[in-house]
Specification:
This protein is mainly α and 193 residues long. It has twelve helices and no strands.
Length: 193
């Protein structure tokens, strides 16, 4: 990227890709500087604003991350990735009602998106709204019965409902579908203790 950028200074997509690459290399401070520079040239770029929020989040600067995600959504209300990043931040902080609100904001734009529905189910499970979460998971599994993440989410829901044996079955199904899925293996091992 850096060589390409030398031949095309100010290349927004190239700079953005460099920032993403730096973040993947666990260098979010450098990524932040690049995203900030891009936004000086192109302040309405919601993708870069979302990436800046992600760089802030990786540094533990949650207020700045939230502000960036919200600004990206103001610029592009249909930007599902920014809404998912905002929801994840809220969920990690235990702000489940706000996380549900963020998800409901994008559900109309991504109503058939399994990731959105799975996150919705996960937040509902955290809130103890197990029946609603179960309905979400049934919808995902009807469309894609081989979705290991849906089986894990179902296992988590059943576990919270006190149905350990059924939860174990769901975790085993997830592990059978994706043998490298650490969460499925760990959840199975935890229940077998």
């Amino acid at each position: 990227y850096q060589h390409a950028l030398q031949s095309r200074p100010g290349w927004v997509d190239g700079l953005n890709n460099l920032g993403v690459a730096l973040e993947k290399l666990d260098r979010p401070e450098q990524a932040e500087r690049i995203f900030s520079e891009i936004l000086k040239q192109d302040p309405e770029n919601s993708k870069v604003r979302n990436n800046l929020g992600h760089a802030f989040a990786r540094q533990g600067r949650h207020e700045e991350a939230e502000r960036s995600f919200r600004e990206a959504l103001e610029q592009n209300p249909r930007y599902v990735r920014a809404a998912l990043n905002l929801e994840q931040l809220q969920e990690e902080e235990g702000r489940y009602e706000e996380a549900l609100e963020s998800l409901s904001h994008i559900e109309t734009h991504a109503e058939h998106d399994a990731e959105v529905t799975l996150r919705h189910a996960r937040v509902l499970t955290s809130l103890g709204r197990l029946k609603e979460a179960s309905e979400d998971l049934k919808r995902v599994l009807r469309k894609d019965p081989k979705n290991p993440r849906a089986h894990i989410a179902r296992g988590n829901l059943l576990r919270k409902a006190g149905k350990q044996q059924q939860a174990l079955t769901s975790y085993r199904q997830a592990a059978a579908l994706d043998s490298k899925n650490a969460e499925a293996r760990l959840s199975t091992a935890t229940l077998l203790r």
